[in-house]
Design brief:
The complex is a heterodimer of chains A (about 55) and B (about 500). By secondary structure, chain A is mainly α. Chain A has helices at about 15-40, 40-50. The mean pLDDT of chain B is about 75. The chains are: A mainly alpha (about 55), B mainly alpha (about 500). At the A-B interface, helix 1 and helix 2 of A face helix 1, helix 2 and helix 5 of B.
Chain lengths: ~55, ~500
């Protein structure tokens, strides 16, 4: 006798290591995404800086 | 038997256990994703979009200041009160383990640091990358990430410390909501203040640098960019001094115990008056129970306050932005939309650290859930709606003038009462404080869009239709009458 009264299969407890990996993956995407965006927008940033009035530089 | 020193295997097991609770709470066996991973995804998405906009036009220090403000707001939204509670003294469930005190303390400290890194990095990483690129220095980027962690620890320690101090003094614990509200308003207000002059944000920051040195995020922005820029030295000193004070406050949180008064203070004259006038005899038990427990729920104060900070900050900044004509409609809509936060407050009401006390209701002779709901409804009207309404109306009187505020006041109150009525009706379980906070199931978001839309429409109609005392009386009579009829029909 196991004492279980339903037919539902026992659920596996979630794995902390897997969850840490998934959050690490999110950070990696954020890092890579930010680097890509920053590189892509570098020329726009320089253009904005050049077009700014002299008083604000 | 307890041993001296640190046992590394036990330390690893303890940290693993604490992190498992962070990630999964009590839902380890459920299929839902962990709140921390979902939060990190949300934070990094927002930080990427906002960061690239700021990156286009700002030099490193200014970018770090704006970016770190965003990090503080996003972290507060995702971590909420947990960032403060991880620092609190709650070793009760570890006290019986055969583990040395040093191991438990080290585990808690390492866990607090890991928790802050996990909870704040989602927003901090993109901002750090943009600051690093702006300064053209990798070390500045890394320093920005470190400053973001330092800042999160600072705010968590300050909030936890102030809460612990207020919580340890008998009658001051009621002020805890105000602390959360103040910090939330400060951060969201700063964010909105920055959005307003976005094209000239650099000039706006330079122009207000003296004022900004009172704003803690400025200290951490200086710390972040000190590697590659020349920053005012007093800001760096403030960051060191501020951190020392924050850590001292955090230490208070780890030492002080909450007072739990055995008897509730006697009800004040306003509560007695309200209770005599509006609360029926058979609803009074739930009414009094709810009002006596509410101020003792420190967690609830921490959870609700950040939500209320948004409208408070919007009102403060909105008052300065718009010209008189635009402002009138803006304030009308905002006053109405504030009511959309009520369902969250109501949902959190059913959660409590002391949920085991629900046996009081389980064996009480009150059989009808309707009566319970009515008692809870009236207690919430008294403890949440009336104070919130008073603050909103006072702000409205300061922004639009007392006569305009008075003209629109009844409709704002009726709208709040409508929302509250519906939220209490939708509560799956009418017992107040009957569930543990970890069991916070979904449901707060259901119908939120419809509610926000309905309230915006109501605010728009209020601003457009209510012009004089006749129209105000007519609109209030119709809305109030409809609510009265609905409640009568429901209570049958």
């Amino acid at each position: 006798m196991t004492g279980r009264t339903t037919n539902a299969p026992p659920r596996k407890p979630r794995d902390l290591r897997r969850e840490m990996l998934s959050i690490g993956f999110v950070y990696l995407i954020a890092l890579v995404g930010a680097v890509a965006l920053a590189r892509g927008c570098q020329s726009d940033r320089n253009t904005t800086a050049q077009s700014r009035p002299e008083s604000q530089k | 038997m307890r041993t001296r020193g640190i046992d590394w295997r036990q330390l690893r097991a303890l940290i693993g256990a604490l992190l498992t609770v962070d990630f999964f709470g009590e839902s380890r066996h459920q299929q839902a994703g962990s709140a921390l991973a979902a939060g990190a995804l949300f934070q990094s998405g927002i930080a990427l979009i906002a960061g690239v906009l700021l990156y286009l036009g700002l030099p490193p220090f200014h970018l770090a200041l704006a970016g770190l403000t965003l990090v503080a707001v996003l972290t507060a939204m995702v971590l909420g009160p947990e960032a403060a509670t991880v620092l609190k003294a709650s070793n009760d469930n570890l006290a019986g383990l055969p583990v040395s005190v040093a191991t438990v303390r080290t585990a808690r400290a390492v866990h607090a640091i890991l928790y802050i890194i996990l909870g704040a990095s989602g927003a901090a990483i993109p901002i750090a990358v943009f600051v690093g690129f702006a300064a053209e220095n990798v070390m500045t980027g890394f320093a920005t990430w470190l400053a973001a962690m330092h800042q999160t620890l600072f705010f968590a320690s300050v909030v936890a410390g102030i809460h612990a101090i207020l919580g340890s003094v008998k009658y001051l614990s009621r002020l805890r909501t105000l602390v959360g509200l103040f910090i939330g308003t400060l951060l969201v207000g700063a964010l909105l203040f920055g959005i307003r002059p976005l094209p000239d944000l650099r000039a706006a920051i330079d122009g207000h640098l003296d004022l900004l040195s009172y704003y803690p995020v400025t200290w951490f922005a200086a710390e972040a960019t000190a590697v590659s820029e020349t920053v005012p030295r007093h800001l760096l000193l403030l960051s060191i001094g501020g951190s020392a004070v924050a850590l001292a406050l955090g230490a208070c949180a780890a030492v002080l115990k909450e007072t739990e008064a055995a008897t509730a203070p006697p009800p004040g004259p306003i509560r007695v008056f309200f209770s005599k006038l509006f609360v029926r005899e058979n609803e009074r038990a739930t009414f009094d129970f709810t009002l006596n427990i509410l101020p003792r729920e420190g967690d609830r104060a921490l959870r609700v306050a950040p939500f209320l900070a948004f409208p408070a900050a919007l009102l403060t900044v909105g008052a300065a932005i718009y010209d008189a004509k635009e402002r009138l409609l803006f304030v009308r809509i905002l006053l109405m939309v504030t009511g959309a936060y009520l369902p969250v407050a109501v949902l959190l009401l059913s959660r409590s650290r002391h949920a085991a006390a629900r046996w009081v209701f389980d064996c009480a002779p009150i059989a009808a859930p309707k009566l319970l709901r009515c008692g809870v409804y009236k207690a919430l009207i008294f403890s949440i709606v009336i104070p919130m309404f008073a603050v909103l109306e006072l702000s409205d009187a300061a922004i639009s003038g007392p006569s305009t505020a008075l003209l629109h006041a009844p409709l704002v109150f009726i709208a709040m009462a409508w929302v509250l009525d519906r939220s209490v009706e939708l509560l799956p379980d009418p017992f107040p404080f009957g569930e543990l906070p970890e069991r916070l199931a979904g449901g707060a978001g259901e119908g939120a869009m419809a509610l926000a839309f309905g309230l915006t429409l109501a605010g728009f109609l209020d601003g457009w239709f209510v012009r004089d005392i006749t129209s105000a009386a007519l609109a209030s009579a119709v809305a109030g009458g409809a609510l009265y009829v609905k409640r009568r029909l429901h209570s049958r």
